[in-house]
Structure formats: structure tokens, C-alpha cells
Design a protein that fits this description.
Elements lengths: L3 H6 L1 H10 L5 H40 L3 H38 L18 E6 L12 H7 L3 E2 H7 L6 E2 L2 H19 L3 E3 L4 E2 L1 H7 L11 E2 L4 E3 L4 H6 L4 E4 L5 E10 L18 E11 L4 H19 L3 E5 L11 E9 L4 E12 L1 H6 L1 E4 L5 E3 L1 E9 H11 L1 E2 L2 E3 L2 H7 L3 E2 L1
Parallel strand pairs: 4-9, 8-14
Antiparallel strand pairs: 1-11, 2-3, 5-7, 6-7, 9-10, 10-16, 11-12, 12-13, 13-16, 14-15, 17-18, 18-19
The protein binds one RNA strand of 88 nucleotides through helix 3 and helix 4.
RNA sequence: GGAGAGAUGGCGGAGUGGUCGAUCGCGGCGGUCUUGAAAACCGUUGUACUGAAAGGUACCGGGGGUUCGAAUCCCUCUCUCUCCGCCA
């Protein structure tokens, strides 16, 4: 969430930038400003009364020690009325604070200067393109047919043991998955990211920390018996490592990577979007997470983009980078770049990575801070990106690399798969 | 699953109703000494809100209660640990 300080410093700017996200923040921001004035006054009164009570209590203690019972009793009676007043004001203060917090939670992150205006995915800006478009014959097969033909992925079996959206990878299909995971992790390690193997279920506090809760509750699988959530991405457990933490400036930047299975309910999805590997309830992903000093976060973002681009280049897939417009960005992001690969047999672009800078928005909720040279604590900037999500990479690889002889494995994966071609 | 113990500052660990935001030790920071370091000694050392500042307020797992006054008493929730059982 935004900090009160950010809002107080420049409310007009925030309102103007929120409009880029299609969010009318005028009412909320003004309300927050009003409530804040109210809060300060109320707190002052509360604190003064509390100070008075503390003093009186101390003096009663002193009287008791001196054995001046009667005087003490008199003072007690005096305290009662002040206490009542203080109680009412403290309650009012609590209400105001809760109201401010509720409104703050409802205000999305402010898109940074580089974010283009726009309402839908149509308005995203293609920033960069690379890779060769494959020349497939007319009878090229979509990945779900290829998966069946070469016995790589069994979707029906997944339906049998769990349900739709839970594919079963078999034989060389499973091996290829593992090769991709290894490849991505090794590349991240080479780029200086420390590998983390996180829990796949998290508690409520972690859900709040990264912003899945309270509003995106329905997106996560919930283990009712234990009050735990299945992670929708490794971002959740990994970023929450730094919840309620004050880092030293020399610990920054923090660069973590994690492989995890990801679980998403994806309620309401249907049709061609969910065919085959296009959208799953369980999928594999390697995530990169960074905690940065504010002045370094945009350079870090560029580095992350380059890293993801490098992966796609090595895989030899046609790709492009989209700079998301305000309306297509997530609630918590200050700027997001999506990476898409072209899935040739389906004839469509598939999102395989999303790289974002959250600036202090996430850190504020997480209370992830660092101590600068001046000993003051400041909020960190948090960033994350997929590097990469597997299923759509798998889909594109199968489709784009199909030949009459079989599916050709990209060079960079061969040392992991131990086979060059799936035939 | 059964039984028990516990949750205090970066860590360890005191504190069972009144100058306790909290003894002490370790660690950290600053200094003395030293060519430098170590050792020793001295000082310092949480977070947040509020205030121009001085200061004030809150926080001893969370929430509630008793009391003039709670880290300390009561209720409740959560979590952790130990032993037994089961088990990858």
C-alpha cells in the first residue's frame, strides 16, 4: 500500500497518476488527508490524557508508599473521569486508524512515469522483438496434439487423478520439464541470484504481505483445516522472507531465485485460453526476486529484463516485450513488462514472464526496510519476475520446434535432457 | 494423535503489581590504549506515531479483562519447543 507520507507529499500527482491505471482516486486521497488531520488531533488529545493518567497513577503509587491512604483514595476518584474520556478518545482513534488503513488498502500502486496510458491489453506497447518466426507447414500440430503423439503429457490422466488443469508429464515430457527448471535455475545462479527452496503453503500474514490478501482470496487454494494457502507463485514465500525485517544497507541488493510449483484456481477461465498448457491450475515456474535501495531499483529492473530476454534468446523462441499500459497492470505494480513467446501452431502470443517493480508499495505492507548510512530506516523497493514460467515455454517449444523427424531440443537444454530430439 | 513446557529488545537470558522500555551477558557502534590488530577498559545501542524542539504516547506472541497502576494477575487465540506414538 501507499504510505501516508507519499500521499501527503503530493496528492495531486498521485491522483493524476492513478488515473493512468483507470482508478479515480480523488475521493479516496482527499478522504485520507482529512482523516489524517483528524487522526493527529485525536492522537494528541489521547496522548495528553494518557500522559496525565500515567502521572496520576505514579503519584498514587508514591502516596501509597508514604502510607497516605486517604489522599490516594481521593486521587483515584479523580482519575476515573479522565479515564473514561481517554477510553472514548482511544476508541475513536482506533476507528480513524482502521478507516485510513482500509482506504489505503483499496488504493492501487501509482504507475511510474514510464507507464503508458491505456485501458486494456490492446493498449500495451510492444517494446522490443526478437527471435526467428518458425516456418511451419500447414499441417503443424498444436502442442496438445504433439504431447499426445509423442506421449509427453497426459491431460486426461490429470483429469482422472485431480481435475482439469493438472496435467501429468510423462517420460521425456517430464524430463524436459526438469531440464527447463534446471536450466533456468542455473542461469539465475550464474547471474548472481541465491537459490531458495520455499514452502509451497503459506500463512495468512504472508498472503497479506505480498498483497494476495485480502482481495484476491479466491485465486488461491486454501487448506481450510490449517488456515494455509497454496502459493500462486514463489514470489509469495520468497518475498515474505523479508517481512518485518530491517536490512543493513550493505546487505542490498538481495537477489533470490526459486523454483516452485504454482497453484492457481483461475476461476472463470474457459475456452481456447485454457486448452492444453495455456492455462493451468498447477504449473512450474522459476521466479527471481530482488530487494533494492530505491535509487537502484530501476537499474535492477533493466537487469532483470535483460536476464529474461537472455533466456528466451538461448531457447531460440520468437519473443517480444510489452510495456503494460496502466489499465492492464496489476494492482500492486508501479511498472510491468510482460514477455510473450509466439506459439506458432496456435498462431498466438503466450505470456511467459512478467517483470515488475513494486517500488515501496509491497515493502510498506511487508515492513521491509533498510538502514541507510544516516542510520535512518527507509522502505526498500521490491521487484520480481518470472524467469521463466514453464508451461507456455513448453507449448512454444513443442510447436515451434516440430519437424518431420521429431521435436528438436534447443542446444542449451541438451545437457539437461540428454536427448537432442523427441521422436 | 497423547502429555507437558514456553513465547521478553539482533541473540542469550533476568524480571510475578508501582520511577521497567525493561537488570545482566553476548553481539553491534564510538572512544582510550596500540605502528596496526587483538585483549582490556570507558561510553553507547529497539520500533512506530506525534512534536520545530524539549518532550509525550504506544509496543515484553495476538486480542480482551481486572486495577489508580500490568511484562508481571485473569480469560481467550495463535505459535514454538520437549517427551511418547505414527511416519517420508
Amino acid at each position: 500500500m501507499l504510505t501516508l507520507q507519499q500521499i501527503k507529499e503530493n496528492p495531486e500527482y498521485i491522483i493524476a497518476r492513478l488515473a493512468v491505471k483507470g482508478f479515480d482516486g480523488k475521493e479516496a486521497i482527499n478522504k485520507i488527508l482529512d482523516l489524517d488531520t483528524d487522526r493527529r488531533q485525536t492522537q494528541l488529545r489521547n496522548d495528553n490524557l494518557a500522559a496525565d493518567l500515567n502521572k496520576k497513577a505514579a503519584s498514587i503509587g508514591a502516596l501509597m508508599k508514604q502510607g497516605k491512604r486517604e489522599e490516594a483514595e481521593g486521587a483515584k476518584a479523580e482519575v476515573a473521569t479522565i479515564k473514561e474520556e481517554q477510553k472514548a478518545i482511544a476508541a475513536r482513534l482506533g476507528e480513524i486508524e482502521a478507516e485510513i488503513r482500509d482506504i489505503l488498502l483499496s488504493v492501487p500502486n501509482v504507475p511510474c512515469e514510464m507507464v503508458p496510458e491505456g485501458k486494456t491489453a490492446e493498449d500495451n506497447v510492444v517494446e522490443k522483438t526478437g527471435g526467428e518466426m518458425p516456418n511451419l507447414p500447414a499441417d503443424a500440430l498444436p502442442h496438445w496434439d504433439l504431447a499426445k503423439k509423442y506421449n509427453l503429457i497426459d491431460f486426461d490422466l490429470g483429469v482422472k487423478i485431480t481435475g482439469a488443469g493438472f496435467p501429468v508429464y510423462v517420460g521425456r515430457g517430464a524430463r524436459l520439464q526438469r531440464a527447463l527448471i534446471d536450466f533456468f535455475l542455473d542461469e539465475a545462479a550464474a547471474a548472481g541470484y541465491i537459490e531458495i527452496e520455499p514452502p509451497y503453503v503459506v500463512n495468512e500474514a504472508s498472503g497479506y504481505g505480498t498483497g494476495q490478501l485480502p482481495d484476491k482470496e479466491g485465486q488461491m487454494y486454501f487448506v481450510n483445516e490449517d488456515g494455509l494457502y497454496l502459493i500462486p507463485t514463489a514470489e509469495v514465500p520468497v518475498t515474505n522472507i523479508y517481512r518485518d525485517v530491517i536490512l543493513n544497507a550493505d546487505q542490498l541488493p538481495i537477489k533470490n531465485t526459486a523454483y516452485s510449483a504454482c497453484f492457481r484456481r483461475e476461476a472463470g477461465s474457459y475456452g481456447k485460453d485454457v486448452r492444453g498448457l495455456n492455462r493451468l491450475h498447477q504449473f512450474d515456474k522459476v521466479e527471481i526476486v530482488r530487494i533494492e535501495k530505491p535509487e537502484c531499483s530501476y537499474a535492477a529492473l533493466e537487469e532483470m529484463k535483460d536476464h529474461v530476454e537472455g533466456l528466451l534468446r538461448k531457447l531460440g523462441l520468437p519473443w517480444h516485450i510489452l510495456r503494460l499500459c496502466g489499465g492492464d497492470m496489476s494492482f500492486t505494480s508501479a511498472i510491468t513488462f510482460d514477455f510473450e513467446v509466439y506459439s506458432a501452431a496456435q498462431g498466438r502470443w503466450l505470456e511467459v514472464s512478467s517483470v515488475s517493480n513494486f517500488e515501496t508499495y509491497q515493502a510498506n505492507r511487508l515492513k521491509c526496510r533498510y538502514r541507510g548510512e544516516d542510520k535512518k530506516t527507509r522502505l526498500c523497493h521490491t521487484l520480481n519476475g518470472s524467469a521463466l514460467a514453464l508451461p507456455r515455454i513448453m507449448a512454444a517449444l513443442l510447436e515451434n520446434n516440430q519437424t518431420p523427424e521429431g521435436i528438436v531440443i534447443p542446444e542449451c537444454l541438451r545437457k539437461y535432457t540428454h536427448f537432442d530430439i523427441i521422436d
